[in-house]
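Standup notes, structure subgroup. Blocker cleared on the flavin mononucleotide input:
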Amino acid sequence: MPRLLRIDVSPRMEGSSSRTIANQFIDVWKRKYPGGEIINRDLAKITLPHLDADTTAAFVTPPEERDDVLQEAVTLSDQLVQEFLTADEILISSPMYNFGVPSTLKAYIDHIIRAGYTFSYHPQEGFSGLVKTKHAYLALSYGAAGYIDGQMAQIDFLKPYLEAVLTFIGIPHIETVYIEGAAFAPEAAEQTKALVPERIHSILGFIETTP
Ligand SMILES: Cc1cc2nc3c(=O)[nH]c(=O)nc-3n(C[C@H](O)[C@H](O)[C@H](O)COP(=O)(O)O)c2cc1C
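Run returned:
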């Protein structure tokens, strides 16, 4: 049975559009995989440190050569990387903040994109992703409308960025469910919200049958 790592970002526990999409997704996912395991990594409930000099030094120092200070500096990142690597599927729910990912999600990404763990580099072959996870799902919420295929698309650094990072580490299939206009365009919000359940079913390839 698959193990899904759910990563939430919005600081809002109530009324969060991105968390609502993720909840809807989880409902369907659980019905598709009744014995599936869900691991929750809520970035609003922890404060991830920004990478500092010791952590970045530890990243490029083999474990057997690290002193206690470097080992301590990389412990949290190691834990997050292990958690990420044990997941068969990844769900990230996130709002757009200032045209991109909230800084909490960027901090998380900085901790898990690690040479030798989630990607590798060879002088001849270039970069390769090391993550075996095949599917990532994005549950995204935009305050304005027009980012997905409208006038704002050029300044959407949320969805394309997450797709680029996840592709870089080797995840081949990335699907997005989104709400646009959640803060500024009520009509678009209603329209995109209404499409969420069908989109989730189509992504998961799961049609429920009533007994
Ligand atoms: C600090 C901050 C920055 C935001 N920046 C943007 C933005 O650049 N573009 C946009 O469309 N909406 C922006 N929004 C609106 C949020 O993306 C929108 O309200 C979203 O639904 C929030 O997600 P949540 O409901 O899951 O918390 C911003 C909101 C906040 C609080």
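Discussed briefly. The pocket of flavin mononucleotide is lined by residues 10, 12, 16-19, 95-99, 141-144, 182-183 (CB under 6 Å).
Next: hand off to the docking folks.
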